[in-house]
């Protein structure tokens, strides 16, 4: 087993941990391997493409399982603390008046691009998202959505990829980003911060993430793909705080099964309002506990110049 970034030797680290137990059908019974040189970790064996496609089309955002909060896209939620923070961060490094085209890979409902467009009207926003529910919202938000990244025949000044990279089975997408980028453009990535030290080993689960990045991994990626790093930083809530949320999610969702929808029609409005309330509580907690520049924070963000 060779490292997916630097091709050096890897060692078996741990068994892969599941959030929803039944996801093993799509993701497989995997192990986690770690590169001895750059500390990058990844799943092995990787899930089969056909199973993974099925997972993201039919299961990932299914009702009553993790990510149900993603679909609670209240119309004004694009101005959430998290999205405003992304915008503030980017404004420190780049001049949006010089950005004409933005591409968001794995955009979900496209909150960040929509927020950017609200602030800088002339920017054209594009996305690559396959989820039907998200596609509807993207259309309302004037995104040009591509089903397949290979169909894109325009070039971009800014490419964003937030919490998507870790869901892929390899890093070839970086090459795609490079060919979609104008010269001198920017690539903004955010992923979970996965330094497999004693603290991180207490994480409740890995699924459905397949690749686990550290600061060092991104330094290697920059070298491999000839990208210039403008910034790498830690941010978000402390790991311990995040693990508490993950434990809550695990308890709630671990026994979720496809096709078993409990009392959905009976009390859907009440349930929806309850979900909105929980969502808002999480968001407020995240805002309260948000920090920057500490190794033990949950996220890692990188801004590359291409
Ligand atoms: Zn490596």
Number of strands: 12
CATH class: Alpha Beta
Low-confidence regions: none
Q: Please give the largest β-sheet.
A: 8 strands, mixed
In CATH, the architecture is 3-Layer(aba) Sandwich
| Average pLDDT for all residues | 90
CATH topology, anyone?
Rossmann fold
Q: How many helix segments?
A: 9
Binned, the helix content reads 25-40%
First-last Cα distance: 30 Å
Bound molecules: zinc ion
CATH homologous superfamily label:
Vaccinia Virus protein VP39
Number of domains: 1
Describe the structure.
The structure is a single chain. The chain has 306 residues and is of the alpha/beta class. The protein has one domain: 3-Layer(aba) Sandwich (Rossmann fold). 33% of the residues lie in helices and 23% in strands. Strand 2 and strand 3 form a beta hairpin. Helix 3 crosses helix 4. It is globular, with a radius of gyration of 19 Å. It starts with 9 loop residues before the first strand and ends with a strand.
In short, what is this structure?
The protein is of the alpha/beta class and 306 residues long. The chain has one domain (54-305): 3-Layer(aba) Sandwich (Rossmann fold).
Secondary structure: elements and pairs:
Blueprint: E1 10-15, H1 24-27, E2 31-35, E3 41-44, H2 49-59, H3 81-93, E4 101-105, H4 111-119, E5 124-128, H5 132-140, E6 144-145, E7 156-162, H6 173-180, E8 181-192, E9 211-212, H7 215-224, E10 228-238, H8 239-253, H9 268-289, E11 291-292, E12 297-305
Parallel strand pairs: 4-5, 4-7, 5-6, 7-8
Antiparallel strand pairs: 1-2, 2-3, 3-9, 8-12, 10-11, 10-12
Helix pairs in contact: 3-4
This protein binds zinc ion (ZN).
